Amino acid sequence: MSATAPPAGTRDTGGDERLLRTSPLRGLMGRPELGSVVGAVAVFVFFSLVADSFLQASSFSTVLYAASTIGIMAVPVALLMIGGEFDLSAGVLVTSSALISSMFSYQMTANVWVGVLVSLLVTLAIGVFNGVLLARTKLPSFIITLGTFLMLTGLNLGFTKLITGRVSTDSISDMAGFASAKKIFASELVIGDVTLKVTILWWFALVALATWILLRTRFGNWIFAVGGGADAARAVGVPVARTKIGLYTGVAFAAWVSGQHLLFSFDVVQSGEGVGNELTYIIAAVIGGCLITGGYGSAIGSAVGAFIFGMTSKGIVYAEWNPDWFKFFLGAMLLLATLLNAWVRKRSEATR
User: Fold this and answer.
1) What is the per-residue pLDDT across 107-119, written as a single tens digit (0 to 9) for each?
2) Sign of CA dihedral 184, 186, 187, 192
3) Which tens digit of pLDDT belongs to each residue from 169-217?
4) Which of 5, 3, 8 is nearest to 34 (CA)?
5) Residue 2, pLDDT above cutoff 50
6) Closest CA to 200 of 56, 312, 97, 63
7) Cα-atom radius of gyration of the chain, to the nearest Å?
8) Measured between alpha carbons, how far is 243 from 108 in angstroms, rounded to an integer?
9) Burial track 130-165 (b if 16+ CB lie within 10 A, e otherwise)
């Protein structure tokens, strides 16, 4: 929720820009998520006017659910982008996580929690693999994670067909531990006439955790530092390699959470799912104020970006428009949000 270079304060703070005292207006103008909040308000008002059912409580809960499925992944992707890197394997990693849980549990006839834990270990290992390979080879993260994306896409399909003989897994709904795991990853919370998916709680928790990390921990300082310039960060003692490995591990953990939700929501998993979702996560982060070049952005901004995505995807349905236009509106919002974020940043820099 903080940029690497917020507006100048009134006293010397020894280089920690988060301790600077600013006026409320300057502080607001320096927020990376300001542009996305303005965009979210505009999208909300727009669909409130053109779709009669948009403001209904049940519709809003559906919007939140759609946003949460994107937002869970957009949070660590945003932190990774603040650290100056990308992960093009994030979308298929979600599917890999679900496939591992399902097939391990079914083939071993084990309690599904065994499969869930095995999936966690393997998914985290893939995240560490991306980070270590990046640190050791110095290759661009685009190339490394593109390679991981292609490998996982092939492994998801190849192993699923090899083990099950089909492109989807077998149902595990009647296995021990399924009900308890479903409560954690795919349950619903009923409040009055509104039904909220548990993914919304996971989403809010991850946003709060990521915001605390960015604003209150040394690791948050390291993320902004390596994103602003890895060589400069290394020169002042920042463990660049360890920081980036940690960021990729965070993406893997969120992919595990999303994968378990996918599995326990539908009982079975299609091996081809997830392809293309990595771009959606990046779009949500960019709409939320993250810079492609790194060093600037916020976790809250990624949440707002995901919320805009949810409002648009469901608002078009409630307005009874042709859903073929969805990608057009998403692209237009990406461009407008990026331009607005650039303008906000320039105004923030001009007030220093």
Assistant:
1) 998 899 999 999 9
2) positive
3) 999 999 999 999 999 999 998 887 788 999 999 999 999 999 999 999 9
4) 3
5) no
6) 63
7) 21
8) 36
9) bbebbeeeeeebeebbbebbeebbeebbeebeebbe
The span from the CA of 294 to the CA of 286, in Å, is 11
Per-residue tokens: 268: 């079975």
Q: What is the pLDDT of residues 33-90, one digit of tens each?
A: 777 888 888 889 988 998 888 888 888 899 999 999 999 999 999 999 999 999 999 9
